[in-house]
Structure formats: structure tokens, C-alpha cells
Amino acid sequence: MSVNTLLRDSSLSWLAAEGRESDVVLASRIRLARNFRQVPFPNRADFNQLAEVRLQVEKILPGIAADLQQDFDLLDMERLSPLQRDVLVEKQLISNNFIQNPQHRVAFITEDCRTSIMINEEDHLRIQCMAPGLDLDTPFAKASHIDDMIEDKLDIAFDEKMGYLTSCPTNLGTGLRASVLLHLPGLVFTHNIESIVNISPQLGLAIRSVYGDEKERFGNLFQISNQLTLGFSENEIIENLKTAVMEIVSHERQARKALALYMKERLEDEVWRAYGTLRYARLLSEQEVLELLSKVRLGIDLKLINEVAADCFAEILISSRTSYLQNVAENENLSKHEIDRLRANHVRQALLAHARSQEAPK
Predict the structure, then answer these.
(1) Integer Cα distance of 44 and 41 in angstroms
(2) CATH: 3.40.50.300, 3.30.565.10, 3.30.590.10, 3.90.420.10. Which one for 3-258?
(3) What is the CA 102 to chain-centroid distance, rounded?
(4) Burial per residue of 111-130, b for 16 or more beta-carbon CB atoms within 10 angstroms, e otherwise
(5) Domain locations along the chain
(6) Distance (Å, rounded) from C-alpha 295 to C-alpha 219?
(7) For 158-181, what is each residue's pLDDT tens digit?
């Protein structure tokens, strides 16, 4: 896949509406942080040392690709424009921290976008694998396999007592960060989300809003991940996260059931108003799309809306982002009005592309 195709493609296979518990759990991700033993961490390494890290990884990557039977595309942050880098961040293929200083920062990404290796991010290596739905085992197995191949060829910083040595203390030990992307409109609407957020640290977990901040959240999308890695095995971390996620899934479904039972008419009205606005609006802001899209996805999962398939959610989530739209238009100087118009057009096209043949709603 060419870099231009990757940047313009609005589909992400790891965010597809499939997999276990996919009505609530949108995607699962595993990240492994690794560093070279004889090289300072990226925030202390000079350009020559960062260049050497990149060179060493590039030498062994063909062997990894052959073993996985998947090719990796090389994305050199120095060769990409700031706008193109932002698109990759919007797609969650790289981190925002990764693009702050692009010199000698490269990412290797598979064609299906489920696997990426960031070189010289906060750590020398960040191995990231993703899967749709609640499936931490598949990406963990793949990330671990890649890690084994890397450790077989390179000298990785590891201490018998401390485990893997990392730039951030919270990654010390296994170097594992497991996370799950959740859609929680029921808990937000019933004002129960705060209790989930507040109790998470007691379970060794962190939950945050994907869009917005603590004061204002958009789209009802949350990421939950492990906070600590030291003193726990990889399996313990993953199983703890799975248990917590399934508990949240149960509470979210109970909240949705209560809404459908006690507020059925209002719920249907809000869902259909959201669908109608996305389907016919000519101007849409980024925040507005996130809020309306959440309601439409809820309507699809509760089978209130049959006109469109759930896969429209992921496509709209990507194609409605500002940097994505500017890149497609090849103009980062678009006015807000022009961006909102372009955004509405992309949303309408996505809904039409995923439309099902249905009778008119009663």
C-alpha cells in the first residue's frame, strides 16, 4: 500500500464491527516497549544513536516480514508533512508523542494496519498490534512473536529483577500496555460513567475519554488500559483487563436495556434525529459528528436502525476528522465552513456506501 493510499483510506480493519462483544467493545490493542541495552533512551540519545537504532531495525525487518508473511510499509516522519503525520495520529497508527520530533523517527505498518512498529518513540521500539472487538490474545500473541524475533537478533535492555527497562517508569517490568476501546453511551446517558472512571485506579487500570477531556467528553468513546506492569506477568495484566472490561460491558448493556425500557420513545427519537441529521446535513462540525454518530451506532446495536450497517461507524469516525479532510482536499488552509461542508459530504457518502435496503421506518 502506498503512503498516499494509506493516508486517504477511510477504513481500518481493526475497527471493523466484528469480533467478540463488538456492540460495546470496538477494538483491542497491545503495545510492547523495548530498548537497546547499549543506547540511551530516545529522549537522551543523539541523532547518530537514533540513526543507528533505525538502521539496526531496518536490517532485521525483512526477516520479520517473511516470517509473518506480511509486508511492512516504511513511513519516515521526516519525509511526511505535519498534516500527513496528524492523519496517522488520527488513525491511531502512531502516537502524538512520536511526531513531536520527527528526526530519525520511522514507523513500519502492515497493509491491514493491524500491526505497526514505531522506532525511536518514547522507547527505541514500540510494537503495536490491534484487533476488532474484545480480543487481546491475538494481538498479544503476534506482538510477542515479533518481540521474540527482535530479541533473537538485537541486544534488548533487560534486568533480572526489574524486567524490561523503559523510558517511562509505568512501563517498567513487562513493558506491556494493553488497552480496549469501548463505546459507552448507556453509562454516560444514565450518569454512571463517573463511578466506573473513579474505581478503575483501584483495579490497577486507567480509563479516559478518547475525544475531549475530563470536563467535556465527545462521542462516548473510552479507552481502558493497565496502569502498571512491574510485578505482574503479561497474562495477569491481560486477564485483569479482560475481567474489568466484561464487568463494564455488563453495566453498559444494563444501562442500554433500562433506556430502551423506560425511555423508549425518547431514545428512538434521539437516534432517528441523529441519523437524519448525519444523512442530510450539509454542514457538520467535528464535535457534532462524534455526538450524532454515537447515537446512530447505539441505534444500530439496539436494532432501532436497520437502514445502515454498523461498519459505517468506523469509516465516519476516520473520514470526519479535520486533518484527514484537509489531506484528502490537499489543502490545509480550508476555512471552518469549507471543512464542515466537506465533512458533511463524506458522512453522507459513508452512510450511502453502508446502506441496507429497508422499508421506511414506522
Answers:
(1) 5
(2) 3.30.590.10
(3) 21
(4) eebbbbbbbbbbbbbbbbbb
(5) 3-258, 263-353
(6) 9
(7) 999 999 999 988 898 999 999 999
The C-alpha atoms of residue 96 and residue 181 are separated, in whole angstroms, by: 17
Going through the chain in order, the beta strands assigned E by DSSP cover 25-34, 72-76, 106-110, 115-119, 125-132, 158-159, 163-164, 176-183, 205-209, 221-226
Provide DSSP, 297-359.
Answer: HHHHHTTS--SB-TTHHHHHHHHTSHHHHHHHHT-TT--HHHHHHHHHHHHHHHHHHTB---P
Query: What gap in Å lies between CA 347 and CA 278, rounded to an integer?
Result: 7
CA-nearest of 140, 3, 120 to 56 is: 120
Distance CA 203, CA 343 (A): 39
* Cα–Cα distance, 325 to 87 (Å, whole number): 9
CA 155 to CA 222: how far, in whole Å? 36
Dump pLDDT digits (tens) for 36-57.
999 999 999 999 999 999 999 9
- Per DSSP, what are the bridge partners of residue 131? 28
The model's pLDDT over 239-275, given as tens digits with 9 standing for 90+, comes to 999 999 999 999 999 999 999 999 999 999 999 999 9
What interhelical angle do 264-280 and 234-262 show, nearest 10?
100
Residue with cell 423506560: 262
Q: pLDDT averaged over the chain?
A: 94
Would you say 42 and 167 are in contact if contact means Cβ atoms under 8 Å apart? yes
Residue 14 exposure: Cα atoms within 13 Å on the Cβ side:
25
Locate 347 and state its grid cell: 458522512
Q: Where are the alpha helices (DSSP H) in 154-263?
A: 185-189, 193-199, 234-262
